[in-house]
Amino acid sequence: MTKAQPSTRHIISINDLSNKEIETIFEVAQGFLQELADRNVPNRIGRSTNLASKFILASLFYEPSTRTRLSFESAMLRLGGANITSADPAVSSAAKGESLADTIRVISNYADIVVIRHPRDGAARLAAEYSQIPVINGGDGSHEHPTQTLCDLFTLRAKNKNLRHMKVAIAGDLKGSRTIHSFVYALARFGATIEPLPAPGMELPAHVDRRLREEFHSRMVSKSPEQAEAADNGTIDALYVTADQPHQLSLYAEPEADYGLVLQKKIDAVYVTRFQKERWTEKEQPYPKIDAKFLGEPKFSEASVMHPLPRVNELDASFDSDRRAVYFQQAAYGVPVRMALISLLLHLHQNKSLHQFPGGFAKPDHPIYAQPIGTGVQCGNANCIVNDPAERQYAANKFYVVEGPSRTHCKLRCAYCETDVSEEAAAHFVVADTARRTFSPGLEALLRTPADKLKHLVIYCGGAEAIAAGFQLRETKKAHAS
Ligand code: CP
């Protein structure tokens, strides 16, 4: 594997950025908007600087895009830099079967920074592992789209002056929409209340819901007080409420919110998404339409109406002239926000920077278990990059070991797509010790083992698989020895 240079920094998830770094990006973006504004058109960058005149951005897109690719490329041109583009996998060497891992190693020599979009969850993370230059995730499957979230937050900040303590409704395909997944993590980190309004069967994925509750300290609160208990069980319509303190994946519970006040508060923003038909096998499904009638409810009277775009039919065009419609402003902010991100990742500001990490990634919050593909359990998400036949040999069975509240229970989260291994499957898992050649049922051994020794353990789907690989049940071996 090519080792990344020490100064490289990758942005794969919105959680790769601290709240303070997000504020730094916004300060820089605001500066560009002021210095380089089109004086006749609000929110538009109309002039250029030569800040990045010696640099090249590569856009590597395996999926269609208008906003993300073109606003990144516009941002680079406005910075005085140059672009090279691979916008269609049918006319690149991907069509000949070239892997993403090889492609990124090659592109690392042609450009100084790369933005990638890919249909597979976790693809950007795999690309970053093979890149010597900063990798920005421009959307990977239904996993995340962190730079869209930066545009969304920048829009909210412009409207609400401050990102804390907002109440935001999210509507539509909450399961398939990667913009939603990055957005809800960021909202929770800024202490927001989130009201899910999913299309039927398109609720937030279980792993996103669990992270919001367990790692971001969001609490489910019923919209009607008498159903509070059912809300905690996730069985009824409810809001995610996070306390209004800033926190960065804090280990400590935040102070209790006043739920009565939260319920009464008007909605600050409604975020609408389209049906992500490319993520579903059933291409026609019932889908709510957000229109003036829906937004006529008093609680939406001051709400900014947001959409990452493209829209299809879910948000009526007749709403475009409403003072609350901000979706084209959101898209316009793609240029200054991405100018800020590119220039910070290329270290082009004397007094402002994003932190540097060896290997390009911040130290993860959880220990990492890793074994080569073909050894032990692998990610169960069929759309994860590790399950792509072209990429398998370049990936690994790599999981975060996420400790449960009891400290005797843990779950596994794929380090690429960040999907949790199902509890049902994990109930049968065993952990084998390659030094002792024994295995024990359950995942507790992962919690007892220091992070630097996890490489000696292999997780198998069950005892039979461990025995077939030459391991003995720990108790059986002890009995034979005594
Ligand atoms: N919002 C967004 O990602 O748009 P594109 O698919 O056009 O890039």
Q: Structural class, from secondary structure content?
A: alpha/beta
CA radius of gyration is: 23 Å
The largest beta-sheet arranges its strands as 7-8-6-5-9-10
Please give the number of β-strands. Answer: 17
Q: Per the principal axes of the C-alpha atoms, what is the gross shape?
A: globular
Gap between N and C termini: 45 Å
Structure description:
- The protein is of the alpha/beta class and 482 residues long.
- 27% of the residues lie in helices and 17% in strands.
- The chain has 15 helices and 17 strands.
- A six-stranded mixed β-sheet has the order 7-8-6-5-9-10.
- Helix 3 (100-107) crosses helix 4 (123-129).
- The longest helix has 17 residues, at 19-35.
- Bound molecules: phosphoric acid mono(formamide)ester.
Tag the structure with descriptive keywords.
482 residues, alpha/beta, six-stranded mixed sheet, four-stranded parallel sheet, 17 strands, binds phosphoric acid mono(formamide)ester
